[in-house]
What does this fold into?
Amino acid sequence: MSQFKYFKEKLFIESTSVLNIVKKNKTPFYLYSERQIKENYLNFAKRFKSVRPLICFAAKANTNLVIMRILGKLGSGADVVSGGELLKALKAGIKPNKIVFSGVGKTEEELKLAIKKKILLINVESESEAILINKIGNKINKIIPIGFRINPNVDAKTHKKISTGKAENKFGVSIKNFSSFYKNIKQLKNLKIDAVSVHIGSQILSDAPYKKTLSILLKIFTSLNIKLKYVDLGGGFGIKYNKKDKKINLNNYAKLVYNFKKKLKCDIIFEPGRSLVGNTGILVSKIQYIKKGLNKNFIIIDAGMNDFMRPALYDADHDIVPIIKTNKKNLEPIEFVGPICETSCKFIKYKKYQKINEGDFVAITNVGAYGSSLSSNYNTKPLIAEILASKNSFKIIRKKQDLLKLINA
It folds into this structure.
Protein backbone atom coordinates (compact mmCIF):
# COMPACT_ATOMS: atom_id res chain seq x y z
CA MET A 1 0.00 0.00 0.00
CA SER A 2 2.66 2.49 -1.08
CA GLN A 3 0.08 5.28 -1.55
CA PHE A 4 -1.05 5.08 2.10
CA LYS A 5 1.48 6.71 4.45
CA TYR A 6 1.68 8.66 7.68
CA PHE A 7 2.81 12.29 7.69
CA LYS A 8 3.11 13.89 11.13
CA GLU A 9 0.97 11.13 12.69
CA LYS A 10 -1.86 11.55 10.16
CA LEU A 11 -2.70 8.87 7.59
CA PHE A 12 -2.56 10.12 4.00
CA ILE A 13 -3.78 8.60 0.75
CA GLU A 14 -1.54 9.95 -2.00
CA SER A 15 -1.35 13.68 -1.08
CA THR A 16 -4.67 13.86 0.77
CA SER A 17 -5.23 13.52 4.51
CA VAL A 18 -7.73 10.74 5.24
CA LEU A 19 -8.99 12.83 8.16
CA ASN A 20 -9.98 15.62 5.76
CA ILE A 21 -12.00 13.11 3.73
CA VAL A 22 -13.64 11.81 6.93
CA LYS A 23 -14.70 15.35 7.85
CA LYS A 24 -16.71 15.59 4.61
CA ASN A 25 -18.07 12.02 4.37
CA LYS A 26 -19.98 9.86 6.82
CA THR A 27 -18.31 6.57 7.74
CA PRO A 28 -18.02 3.80 6.88
CA PHE A 29 -16.78 4.18 3.30
CA TYR A 30 -14.32 2.59 0.90
CA LEU A 31 -11.39 4.78 -0.15
CA TYR A 32 -9.17 3.95 -3.13
CA SER A 33 -5.96 5.36 -4.59
CA GLU A 34 -6.08 6.00 -8.34
CA ARG A 35 -2.28 6.13 -8.52
CA GLN A 36 -1.98 2.72 -6.83
CA ILE A 37 -4.43 1.17 -9.31
CA LYS A 38 -2.41 2.49 -12.24
CA GLU A 39 0.92 1.48 -10.70
CA ASN A 40 -0.29 -2.07 -10.08
CA TYR A 41 -1.52 -2.56 -13.64
CA LEU A 42 1.59 -1.09 -15.26
CA ASN A 43 3.91 -3.10 -12.97
CA PHE A 44 2.05 -6.32 -13.80
CA ALA A 45 2.27 -5.59 -17.53
CA LYS A 46 5.98 -4.81 -17.17
CA ARG A 47 6.68 -8.12 -15.40
CA PHE A 48 5.18 -10.02 -18.33
CA LYS A 49 6.47 -7.71 -21.08
CA SER A 50 8.25 -10.57 -22.89
CA VAL A 51 5.01 -12.62 -22.91
CA ARG A 52 2.82 -9.74 -24.21
CA PRO A 53 -0.35 -11.21 -22.69
CA LEU A 54 -3.91 -9.99 -22.93
CA ILE A 55 -4.58 -8.86 -19.35
CA CYS A 56 -8.25 -9.37 -18.44
CA PHE A 57 -9.07 -7.84 -15.07
CA ALA A 58 -11.14 -10.26 -12.97
CA ALA A 59 -14.19 -8.03 -12.55
CA LYS A 60 -15.52 -9.98 -9.57
CA ALA A 61 -12.69 -8.50 -7.47
CA ASN A 62 -14.12 -4.99 -7.81
CA THR A 63 -16.98 -4.03 -10.13
CA ASN A 64 -16.90 -0.28 -9.56
CA LEU A 65 -17.38 1.29 -13.00
CA VAL A 66 -14.82 4.04 -12.41
CA ILE A 67 -12.13 1.57 -11.38
CA MET A 68 -12.91 -0.69 -14.35
CA ARG A 69 -12.77 2.37 -16.61
CA ILE A 70 -9.32 3.34 -15.28
CA LEU A 71 -8.00 -0.17 -15.99
CA GLY A 72 -9.67 -0.25 -19.41
CA LYS A 73 -7.95 2.99 -20.43
CA LEU A 74 -4.60 1.43 -19.50
CA GLY A 75 -5.33 -1.42 -21.93
CA SER A 76 -6.98 -3.99 -19.69
CA GLY A 77 -9.68 -6.36 -20.82
CA ALA A 78 -12.08 -8.10 -18.45
CA ASP A 79 -12.73 -11.58 -17.12
CA VAL A 80 -16.43 -11.73 -16.23
CA VAL A 81 -18.51 -14.41 -14.51
CA SER A 82 -22.07 -13.12 -15.04
CA GLY A 83 -24.19 -11.23 -17.51
CA GLY A 84 -24.17 -8.28 -15.12
CA GLU A 85 -20.37 -8.15 -15.03
CA LEU A 86 -20.30 -8.42 -18.83
CA LEU A 87 -22.61 -5.41 -19.19
CA LYS A 88 -20.59 -3.46 -16.62
CA ALA A 89 -17.34 -4.17 -18.48
CA LEU A 90 -18.89 -2.92 -21.72
CA LYS A 91 -20.30 0.16 -19.97
CA ALA A 92 -16.81 0.85 -18.61
CA GLY A 93 -15.59 1.06 -22.21
CA ILE A 94 -13.81 -2.29 -22.39
CA LYS A 95 -13.91 -3.67 -25.93
CA PRO A 96 -15.80 -6.97 -26.50
CA ASN A 97 -12.72 -8.53 -28.11
CA LYS A 98 -10.94 -8.14 -24.75
CA ILE A 99 -13.60 -9.90 -22.67
CA VAL A 100 -13.63 -13.54 -21.58
CA PHE A 101 -16.64 -15.09 -19.81
CA SER A 102 -15.95 -17.76 -17.18
CA GLY A 103 -18.16 -19.53 -14.62
CA VAL A 104 -19.72 -22.94 -14.10
CA GLY A 105 -23.40 -22.01 -14.30
CA LYS A 106 -23.93 -19.59 -17.16
CA THR A 107 -27.60 -19.37 -18.10
CA GLU A 108 -28.88 -19.58 -21.66
CA GLU A 109 -29.73 -15.86 -21.49
CA GLU A 110 -26.17 -15.02 -20.41
CA LEU A 111 -24.68 -17.15 -23.18
CA LYS A 112 -26.91 -15.48 -25.79
CA LEU A 113 -25.83 -12.07 -24.46
CA ALA A 114 -22.13 -13.00 -24.74
CA ILE A 115 -22.63 -14.28 -28.28
CA LYS A 116 -24.63 -11.20 -29.28
CA LYS A 117 -21.93 -8.87 -27.93
CA LYS A 118 -19.24 -10.80 -29.85
CA ILE A 119 -16.87 -11.19 -26.91
CA LEU A 120 -13.49 -12.84 -27.36
CA LEU A 121 -14.17 -16.11 -25.56
CA ILE A 122 -16.71 -18.03 -23.56
CA ASN A 123 -14.69 -20.29 -21.28
CA VAL A 124 -16.82 -23.44 -21.21
CA GLU A 125 -16.77 -25.41 -17.94
CA SER A 126 -18.77 -28.54 -18.80
CA GLU A 127 -19.77 -30.74 -21.73
CA SER A 128 -23.42 -29.70 -21.18
CA GLU A 129 -22.53 -26.04 -21.53
CA ALA A 130 -20.69 -26.76 -24.80
CA ILE A 131 -23.74 -28.61 -26.15
CA LEU A 132 -26.01 -25.68 -25.21
CA ILE A 133 -23.72 -23.14 -26.94
CA ASN A 134 -23.62 -25.37 -30.02
CA LYS A 135 -27.43 -25.45 -30.03
CA ILE A 136 -27.58 -21.63 -29.81
CA GLY A 137 -25.01 -21.36 -32.61
CA ASN A 138 -27.03 -23.76 -34.77
CA LYS A 139 -30.21 -21.68 -34.34
CA ILE A 140 -28.49 -18.48 -35.48
CA ASN A 141 -26.32 -20.26 -38.06
CA LYS A 142 -23.09 -19.14 -36.44
CA ILE A 143 -19.85 -20.81 -35.33
CA ILE A 144 -19.08 -19.76 -31.74
CA PRO A 145 -15.45 -19.43 -30.55
CA ILE A 146 -14.97 -20.97 -27.11
CA GLY A 147 -12.30 -21.77 -24.58
CA PHE A 148 -12.46 -24.95 -22.55
CA ARG A 149 -11.55 -24.83 -18.89
CA ILE A 150 -9.50 -27.76 -17.65
CA ASN A 151 -9.30 -28.79 -14.02
CA PRO A 152 -5.63 -29.85 -13.70
CA ASN A 153 -6.06 -31.27 -10.17
CA VAL A 154 -3.33 -29.00 -8.78
CA ASP A 155 -3.31 -27.96 -5.13
CA ALA A 156 -2.52 -24.24 -5.04
CA LYS A 157 -1.87 -24.39 -1.26
CA THR A 158 -4.38 -21.65 -0.56
CA HIS A 159 -7.50 -21.39 1.62
CA LYS A 160 -9.90 -24.24 0.86
CA LYS A 161 -12.71 -21.81 0.03
CA ILE A 162 -10.69 -20.17 -2.76
CA SER A 163 -9.12 -23.31 -4.22
CA THR A 164 -10.42 -23.91 -7.75
CA GLY A 165 -7.98 -26.32 -9.43
CA LYS A 166 -8.36 -29.54 -7.45
CA ALA A 167 -10.45 -32.50 -8.59
CA GLU A 168 -12.83 -31.96 -5.66
CA ASN A 169 -13.59 -28.38 -6.83
CA LYS A 170 -16.54 -27.63 -9.11
CA PHE A 171 -14.56 -25.72 -11.73
CA GLY A 172 -13.55 -26.95 -15.19
CA VAL A 173 -13.50 -30.51 -16.55
CA SER A 174 -11.06 -33.29 -15.75
CA ILE A 175 -8.16 -34.00 -18.08
CA LYS A 176 -9.72 -37.36 -18.96
CA ASN A 177 -13.10 -35.82 -19.84
CA PHE A 178 -11.50 -33.01 -21.80
CA SER A 179 -9.42 -35.46 -23.84
CA SER A 180 -12.54 -37.46 -24.70
CA PHE A 181 -14.50 -34.31 -25.55
CA TYR A 182 -11.70 -32.84 -27.70
CA LYS A 183 -11.47 -36.00 -29.80
CA ASN A 184 -15.20 -35.75 -30.57
CA ILE A 185 -15.51 -31.97 -30.95
CA LYS A 186 -16.24 -32.26 -34.69
CA GLN A 187 -19.73 -33.54 -33.83
CA LEU A 188 -20.56 -30.05 -32.52
CA LYS A 189 -20.37 -28.20 -35.83
CA ASN A 190 -21.21 -24.76 -34.44
CA LEU A 191 -18.28 -24.68 -31.99
CA LYS A 192 -14.67 -23.73 -32.54
CA ILE A 193 -12.17 -24.27 -29.71
CA ASP A 194 -9.84 -21.27 -29.74
CA ALA A 195 -8.45 -21.65 -26.23
CA VAL A 196 -7.83 -23.78 -23.20
CA SER A 197 -8.28 -22.15 -19.82
CA VAL A 198 -7.08 -22.96 -16.30
CA HIS A 199 -7.48 -21.23 -12.96
CA ILE A 200 -6.20 -23.04 -9.86
CA GLY A 201 -7.16 -20.71 -7.04
CA SER A 202 -6.77 -17.31 -5.45
CA GLN A 203 -4.28 -15.62 -3.10
CA ILE A 204 -1.44 -17.87 -4.34
CA LEU A 205 1.95 -16.84 -2.93
CA SER A 206 4.26 -19.31 -4.71
CA ASP A 207 5.03 -19.96 -8.37
CA ALA A 208 5.34 -23.74 -7.69
CA PRO A 209 1.67 -24.63 -8.39
CA TYR A 210 1.73 -22.50 -11.54
CA LYS A 211 4.87 -24.31 -12.72
CA LYS A 212 3.15 -27.66 -12.15
CA THR A 213 0.07 -26.47 -14.08
CA LEU A 214 2.17 -25.41 -17.09
CA SER A 215 3.83 -28.84 -17.12
CA ILE A 216 0.43 -30.58 -17.08
CA LEU A 217 -0.86 -28.39 -19.91
CA LEU A 218 2.19 -29.14 -22.05
CA LYS A 219 1.61 -32.88 -21.62
CA ILE A 220 -2.08 -32.53 -22.61
CA PHE A 221 -1.29 -30.43 -25.67
CA THR A 222 1.44 -32.83 -26.80
CA SER A 223 -0.63 -35.98 -26.33
CA LEU A 224 -3.63 -34.54 -28.20
CA ASN A 225 -1.59 -32.54 -30.72
CA ILE A 226 -3.54 -29.40 -29.85
CA LYS A 227 -2.89 -26.11 -31.62
CA LEU A 228 -4.87 -23.14 -30.32
CA LYS A 229 -4.94 -19.35 -30.57
CA TYR A 230 -4.90 -18.77 -26.82
CA VAL A 231 -4.07 -20.32 -23.51
CA ASP A 232 -5.87 -18.56 -20.66
CA LEU A 233 -3.72 -19.09 -17.56
CA GLY A 234 -6.16 -17.44 -15.16
CA GLY A 235 -4.97 -15.38 -12.23
CA GLY A 236 -4.93 -15.91 -8.49
CA PHE A 237 -1.71 -14.00 -7.78
CA GLY A 238 -1.57 -13.22 -4.08
CA ILE A 239 -0.70 -10.02 -2.25
CA LYS A 240 0.83 -9.32 1.17
CA TYR A 241 -1.94 -8.94 3.72
CA ASN A 242 0.44 -9.16 6.66
CA LYS A 243 4.16 -9.44 7.46
CA LYS A 244 4.06 -13.26 7.38
CA ASP A 245 2.93 -13.41 3.74
CA LYS A 246 5.69 -13.94 1.18
CA LYS A 247 5.23 -12.13 -2.10
CA ILE A 248 5.00 -14.34 -5.18
CA ASN A 249 7.98 -14.08 -7.54
CA LEU A 250 6.29 -13.01 -10.77
CA ASN A 251 9.64 -12.61 -12.56
CA ASN A 252 10.26 -16.36 -12.24
CA TYR A 253 6.76 -17.14 -13.42
CA ALA A 254 7.12 -14.76 -16.37
CA LYS A 255 10.16 -16.76 -17.59
CA LEU A 256 8.21 -20.02 -17.30
CA VAL A 257 5.26 -18.59 -19.23
CA TYR A 258 7.56 -17.15 -21.91
CA ASN A 259 9.10 -20.58 -22.55
CA PHE A 260 5.64 -22.18 -22.49
CA LYS A 261 4.38 -19.70 -25.08
CA LYS A 262 7.37 -20.30 -27.36
CA LYS A 263 6.77 -24.05 -27.36
CA LEU A 264 3.04 -23.79 -28.09
CA LYS A 265 3.16 -20.73 -30.38
CA CYS A 266 -0.01 -19.25 -28.87
CA ASP A 267 -1.09 -16.01 -27.21
CA ILE A 268 -1.46 -15.86 -23.43
CA ILE A 269 -4.38 -14.48 -21.43
CA PHE A 270 -4.15 -13.61 -17.73
CA GLU A 271 -7.05 -12.85 -15.35
CA PRO A 272 -5.54 -10.91 -12.42
CA GLY A 273 -7.94 -9.37 -9.93
CA ARG A 274 -6.63 -9.08 -6.38
CA SER A 275 -3.07 -8.32 -7.56
CA LEU A 276 -4.34 -5.26 -9.46
CA VAL A 277 -6.69 -3.76 -6.87
CA GLY A 278 -6.25 -5.53 -3.52
CA ASN A 279 -3.84 -3.04 -1.98
CA THR A 280 -5.49 0.02 -3.53
CA GLY A 281 -8.20 0.53 -0.93
CA ILE A 282 -9.00 0.99 2.75
CA LEU A 283 -12.31 0.84 4.60
CA VAL A 284 -12.60 3.88 6.85
CA SER A 285 -14.69 3.35 9.98
CA LYS A 286 -15.57 5.05 13.23
CA ILE A 287 -15.23 3.56 16.71
CA GLN A 288 -18.79 3.51 18.04
CA TYR A 289 -18.22 1.91 21.42
CA ILE A 290 -15.49 0.34 23.53
CA LYS A 291 -16.86 -2.46 25.67
CA LYS A 292 -14.98 -4.26 28.42
CA GLY A 293 -14.96 -8.04 28.23
CA LEU A 294 -13.51 -10.62 30.59
CA ASN A 295 -10.25 -11.17 28.71
CA LYS A 296 -10.23 -8.35 26.17
CA ASN A 297 -11.91 -5.12 25.18
CA PHE A 298 -14.29 -5.10 22.21
CA ILE A 299 -13.72 -2.20 19.83
CA ILE A 300 -17.09 -1.87 18.09
CA ILE A 301 -16.77 -0.04 14.78
CA ASP A 302 -19.52 1.13 12.43
CA ALA A 303 -18.38 -1.12 9.55
CA GLY A 304 -19.76 -4.64 9.60
CA MET A 305 -19.45 -7.96 7.82
CA ASN A 306 -22.15 -6.75 5.42
CA ASP A 307 -19.69 -4.05 4.30
CA PHE A 308 -16.61 -6.28 4.33
CA MET A 309 -17.15 -10.02 4.21
CA ARG A 310 -13.66 -11.51 3.85
CA PRO A 311 -12.85 -12.04 7.57
CA ALA A 312 -16.20 -13.79 8.18
CA LEU A 313 -16.11 -15.75 4.92
CA TYR A 314 -12.44 -16.74 4.70
CA ASP A 315 -11.07 -16.10 8.22
CA ALA A 316 -8.97 -13.45 6.51
CA ASP A 317 -6.74 -11.12 8.53
CA HIS A 318 -6.67 -7.47 7.54
CA ASP A 319 -4.69 -5.03 9.65
CA ILE A 320 -6.63 -2.14 11.13
CA VAL A 321 -4.69 1.09 11.48
CA PRO A 322 -5.55 4.37 13.24
CA ILE A 323 -6.21 7.46 11.15
CA ILE A 324 -4.13 9.41 13.68
CA LYS A 325 -1.12 7.73 15.29
CA THR A 326 -0.14 8.38 18.90
CA ASN A 327 2.64 7.15 21.16
CA LYS A 328 0.17 6.26 23.90
CA LYS A 329 -0.14 2.49 24.37
CA ASN A 330 -3.08 0.41 25.53
CA LEU A 331 -1.67 -2.77 27.07
CA GLU A 332 -4.97 -4.66 27.20
CA PRO A 333 -5.86 -7.14 24.40
CA ILE A 334 -8.52 -5.82 22.02
CA GLU A 335 -10.71 -7.19 19.26
CA PHE A 336 -12.21 -5.10 16.47
CA VAL A 337 -15.80 -6.16 15.83
CA GLY A 338 -18.74 -4.85 13.82
CA PRO A 339 -22.42 -4.11 14.55
CA ILE A 340 -24.04 -6.97 12.60
CA CYS A 341 -26.04 -9.45 14.66
CA GLU A 342 -23.67 -12.38 14.00
CA THR A 343 -20.77 -13.71 16.07
CA SER A 344 -18.75 -13.84 12.85
CA CYS A 345 -19.02 -10.05 12.45
CA LYS A 346 -15.49 -9.50 13.71
CA PHE A 347 -12.22 -8.44 12.10
CA ILE A 348 -8.95 -8.84 14.00
CA LYS A 349 -7.44 -9.19 17.49
CA TYR A 350 -4.41 -7.36 18.90
CA LYS A 351 -2.52 -8.11 22.10
CA LYS A 352 -1.30 -4.52 22.14
CA TYR A 353 -2.57 -1.45 20.32
CA GLN A 354 -2.25 2.29 20.68
CA LYS A 355 -4.62 4.14 22.98
CA ILE A 356 -7.92 4.68 21.16
CA ASN A 357 -11.21 6.25 22.16
CA GLU A 358 -14.85 6.18 21.15
CA GLY A 359 -15.31 8.52 18.19
CA ASP A 360 -11.81 7.87 16.78
CA PHE A 361 -11.41 6.70 13.19
CA VAL A 362 -9.59 3.63 11.91
CA ALA A 363 -8.99 2.00 8.53
CA ILE A 364 -9.18 -1.66 7.53
CA THR A 365 -6.32 -2.17 5.06
CA ASN A 366 -5.99 -3.97 1.69
CA VAL A 367 -9.72 -4.09 0.95
CA GLY A 368 -9.65 -3.11 -2.74
CA ALA A 369 -10.44 -6.66 -3.84
CA TYR A 370 -13.51 -8.60 -2.68
CA GLY A 371 -14.55 -5.73 -0.43
CA SER A 372 -17.34 -3.73 -2.00
CA SER A 373 -18.07 -6.52 -4.51
CA LEU A 374 -18.97 -8.93 -1.67
CA SER A 375 -20.96 -6.42 0.36
CA SER A 376 -24.68 -6.85 1.03
CA ASN A 377 -27.79 -5.38 2.62
CA TYR A 378 -27.77 -7.89 5.49
CA ASN A 379 -29.54 -6.51 8.58
CA THR A 380 -31.14 -4.02 6.14
CA LYS A 381 -27.99 -1.92 5.99
CA PRO A 382 -27.42 0.38 2.99
CA LEU A 383 -24.42 -0.25 0.75
CA ILE A 384 -21.72 2.21 1.72
CA ALA A 385 -20.05 4.91 -0.38
CA GLU A 386 -16.90 4.42 -2.43
CA ILE A 387 -14.44 7.30 -2.84
CA LEU A 388 -11.45 7.65 -5.17
CA ALA A 389 -8.46 9.78 -4.22
CA SER A 390 -6.18 11.24 -6.88
CA LYS A 391 -3.17 13.30 -5.80
CA ASN A 392 -4.61 15.99 -3.49
CA SER A 393 -8.28 15.60 -4.40
CA PHE A 394 -11.03 13.00 -4.10
CA LYS A 395 -14.45 12.20 -5.54
CA ILE A 396 -17.35 9.89 -4.73
CA ILE A 397 -17.48 7.05 -7.26
CA ARG A 398 -20.48 5.33 -5.70
CA LYS A 399 -22.93 7.13 -3.44
CA LYS A 400 -24.11 5.54 -0.22
CA GLN A 401 -27.36 3.69 -0.83
CA ASP A 402 -30.44 5.55 0.33
CA LEU A 403 -32.02 3.76 3.32
CA LEU A 404 -35.59 4.77 2.48
CA LYS A 405 -35.20 3.53 -1.10
CA LEU A 406 -33.81 0.27 0.24
CA ILE A 407 -36.77 -0.16 2.60
CA ASN A 408 -39.33 0.70 -0.07
CA ALA A 409 -37.73 -1.38 -2.83
